[in-house]
Each structure stands twice: as C-alpha cells, then as structure tokens.
Amino acid sequence: MSPGPGLEPGTAASTTAAFAHGRALNPYTISGRAPSSQTSLIFDIKLQEPDCAVNTHQPVLPARSIHPYRIPLSGPAAVPTQPPVPCQLYSSSWSVFQPDIIISASEGYLWYLQVKLPPTVHLLQDKGKLMDFLLRRRDCKMVIISVCSQVLDCQEKGSLPVVATVFDKLNQVYKEYLEAEQSYTAVMESGPSRGAAAQKRPVRTQAVIDQSDMYTHVLSSFTERKDVSHKFIIAVLMEYIRSLNQYQITVQHYLYELVIKTLVQNNLFYMLHQFLQYHVLSDSKPLACLLLSLESTYPPAHQLSLDMLKRLSTANDEIVEVLLSKQQVLGALRFIRSVGGHDNVSARKFLDAARQTGDQMLFYTVFRSFQQRNQRLRGNPSFNPGEHCEEHVVHFKQLFGEQALMKPSTV
C-alpha cells in the first residue's frame, strides 16, 4: 500500500479490503470498507519494534469497529415517536479526510473520528507498550492512572517488574517536563535576551503524572487495601521511590511518610529502623516530626528523630523544641551550646520548661546558666526587660532568696 496524505512510509496493514485512513488524536487509523471487514486498525508510528531492521508497524490493538451511530429522522415525513435509523458503518459513500474527518455524502453528515482510550486498558496486555501508547495521547491522565491501579491488582511473582516498567515510563516523561520547566525558568531569570524571547513555557500535558497524582489517585488508597499483602505494598512503594531516584527526581516527604505509616501499621519496626539507618528514606523535618509522633508506639523513634534533625543541620530550633517538650532541659541547653547558639537563644523558653518540671535544682541550674551568659555578654547578670523573665526572677527569689542572685560584680 502506498502512503497517502499524512500516512508516513513504513505503515503496514495486512488486509485485502479497501481502505480509508486518517488520524484520530495522533494514532493512525486504517478502516476496511469491505462487508467482510468493517473494522478499523489502529497504528502508532512512533512505537518501534525492538531489534527490527525493517521499519514496519503492526496494529497497536486488535481490529475494532467504529461505535454504532443512529441518525434521527427529520423533515415533513418524520414521525416524533419514530426511532432513529442506524447509520451504515464503513459505507462506500464515506469520504475520509485528514486528520480525523469522515463525511457521508448519502446521509449528509460529517463526523470526527476519536479513539476511546479506556477500553485499551484491557485490550493491550503488554503494559509497557500500553503506557507508550497512552503517554502520546490527549486526555490520557485518568486512563493512565487506571492502568497503574490495574497493574497493582496483580500480586503474582512476576508482577513487580511490570510495575517497575510502568513507573519508569511515567517518571521519564515527568523528568523531561521538570527539566524543560527548569530550563525555561533559568532563561527567564537570566534577563531579557534574544534567547529568552524565543523560549516558550513548556506545556504540561496530561501525560505528566507527578508524585502528587500518584499519591492521591493510586498509592494512598492502595496502602489501605486489606486484601493485598503488606510485603507487596511496601515493595510497590519502594519501587516508585527507586524509579524517582533513578531519574533524579526529589522524592516528596509524603511518600516517605506513606512508607513509614505502612511499616508501623504492620509492626515492621525492624525494617523501619533499617530504612532510616541506611538512609533509604531521606532526611527531612516533616519525616522527623512523624517519627516523634511514633514514640509511644516505638520508643526508639525519638532518638531516630533527633539523629535525623541533627543530620539536617538546619533544624537546631526543632531539636531544642523536641528536647524541651520531653523535659530534657539540660540536654537542650548542652545541645544549643554545642552548635554555638547559646548566646542568642531565648532564656524565657528554657526557664519556662525548667519550671514546668517542678525540679527546683534544675530551675536553679538553668537560671544561673543564663545569668552567667548575661554577665559574659553585657557585664551584668540581670535580664533585660525585653526578655520577659520577670516572673522567673520572682520565682527564683521565692525559692532561694534574693541573696542567691548573682551580683553585677560577680565574675
């Protein structure tokens, strides 16, 4: 068959019927008009067969018929209750025009041919090829999400590689969009130039399935399923994270939180400890806070959280708050000194925490510590009015007497 308008060389069709061809939302359709055929074949010329020396193309899907259409009767002879008349599909009176137009001269109708994507989920068993096909279509987002849900329904031994393939194909497109967006932003920030004027903002198509989409529509509900093995659930979550890392996409903290919650719900604390110890789950403040909330269920989570906050090196305030909330006032004081923040920290915050413990000697130690700081910084142990420590000074006098206060002359 010689290529016609819009049909690229190498598109092959195995049939003896007469043809009409056109494009419907990018895939190429070839429709047979012979009475014995009356079906359409769908090709995608961008889908390449691996290790194929000859540039040939096979139908993406099994032959399918165009959806039936009924023509309502009109005119003087029409009866209101008379049902619409079925349209003769693949009629010899049809004329097909690029890209997706069908005209029936005998019936006086013009149609646009469209491909219904949802049925392809069950028609194409090769999920890798199905993803390649869907990622090039418009209005594909929810169909792609349904494919993800479908592959997660299968818990057979060989299903995880299929899941990995689907995730990789999604994240490849996701990464390409992120790089295009970053490139555009860099050009715009560089200032007005000839290149900036020519640069167009990348369009986010429905093929871009980001982490939020996967979390909201697929993974969150998947982890709540009771009919799925928790081992498979964890394997799927880690596979998605693995794919994101492979394409150097920063993993959002809510995905890590989903992993931790799944591990905790199934009492897999040893695995949680290993994931954190070997940095399978990346450090972040939200993750550290989540670990803190697990302390009542898993006591080592408290120290794991502190270790994570220390590694972040930008979470000193959070570490102090955590220690104070656990009434580890001296520990918080030692930590803030170790990072060089003692001179700027709020005295009242520490005095409040020390007083709440009810330990008088602890309060004395903390109070004296800040008096010594004041003496060193200002040459006077008294607190400034802006520090709002008046009530603690009164409390100190009530407990230990005014003579216990440091005097300005004390070094």
From TrEMBL:
Domain Mic1: 137-384
Any Pfam family matching the protein: RMC1_C
PANTHER family membership: COLON CANCER-ASSOCIATED PROTEIN MIC1, REGULATOR OF MON1-CCZ1 COMPLEX
Name by which UniProt lists this protein: Regulator of MON1-CCZ1 complex
Source organism phylogeny: Eukaryota, Metazoa, Chordata, Craniata, Vertebrata
